[in-house]
Design a protein that fits this description.
Elements lengths: L1 E4 L2 E4 L2 H12 L18 H4 L1
Antiparallel strand pairs: 1-2
Length: 48
């Protein structure tokens, strides 16, 4: 599958398709859940 980006066509790989799906839902990559991590994985001292 090809997608139009700007004035050119690009072959759509799996990563690009996922990014376009996120964009269509209004979600960013940094808003995805990581169910394998718990709140203990957060370094709150570094985050503050």
């Amino acid at each position: 599958m090809y997608v139009r980006l700007g004035s050119t066509n690009h072959r759509a790989d799996a990563e690009l398709i996922e990014e376009l799906q996120r964009f269509s839902r209004g979600k960013g990559f940094d808003e995805q859940l990581l169910p394998v991590l718990s709140s203990e994985a957060i370094d709150f001292r570094a985050a503050s």
